[in-house]
Amino acid sequence: RAKETGRNRFQFFTEDMNRKIDERLRLQSRLQRALQRGEFIVHYQPKVDLPSGRICGAEALLRWHPLGEEAVPPSKFIGLAEETGLIVPIGDWVMRAACAQSKEWEAHGLPAISIAVNCSPRQLLDPDFIERMHALLEETDIDPGRLEIEVTEGTIMQHPEEAIAILARMKELGLKLSVDDFGTGYSSLSYLKRFPIDRLKIDQSFVRDLPDDRDDAAIVEAVASLARSLGLRVTAEGVETAAQAEFLRQHCNDEAQGYYFSKPLPAADFAALLRAGAVAMH
Ligand code: C2E
Ligand code: MG
Ligand code: MG
Ligand code: MG
Fold this sequence. Notes:
Strand content: 15-25%
Shape: globular
Oligomer: single chain
Order of helices and strands: HEEHHEHHEHHEHEHHEHEEH
Largest sheet: 8 strands, mixed, barrel
Strand order of the largest sheet: 1-2-3-4-5-6-7-8
Distance between the termini: 64 Å
Bound molecules: ligand C2E, magnesium ion
């Protein structure tokens, strides 16, 4: 009897695993066609300068709407795109789309802001990455100082020496660099001081329980002070409430981003917000 249960359980497992593998393969083949089918769009989430309440930047966030199907969130496909290497052409597309968008807003006389684009390990470590970034900057004629590349600590720490060298070359191109999801990775302080970066983005997990959670409050204050000492700017991610925004204004008073100000928006809606200049602080 025990044996039978065991066997059944085994069959149950393999069926479940087969189903997962099938789903993955299906997702992969849909992902492979998504670029040429034009199924991707970029949404833009405002970054707000806390002292003034003005929109000072946008983070470009990829959205996938497969034809005739429901939208697939990044959490469901970025990992697979990374594993298969598809993130390289997809990431190039996002980068180009964001630069073109920024140029268009500029041409329409909208306030000059910076645009942040996420960059995954495969993209950063791709042998031609720097060359393609250089070509993109020439082609789109965008001010590299207004293009910010977001990499996570994990991305850098996979191959720290290589990554630091690539980041240094990106700085030479005039780009701005930030460390995304800061505090969730494994970079030691001795590495942090060697990263040629401009900004730390405090991960939303430290912001979520502000201002009541004393540990998170202490961490956020410490990161803000560390950043100040290292000459880095700070962005707080995932700000959802007025109380969080107020805490951050008092203790770090730099830049913030989150649903409290605005969700990521289609380009046209973002432009309308940018034209208005500031987001409503309730
Ligand atoms: P991320 O770069 O850390 O982006 C922030 C994520 O937090 C976004 O999720 C954003 O929609 C979400 N967010 C913003 N404000 C709030 C808030 O107040 N509360 C909560 N709970 N969430 C908030 P999204 O768009 O689903 O993207 C998830 C991740 O996927 C990104 O995390 C980034 O790592 C990756 N990703 C997105 N677009 C791209 C891309 O074009 N290229 C690459 N390589 N990765 C991307
Ligand atoms: Mg990001
Ligand atoms: Mg983040
Ligand atoms: Mg993230």
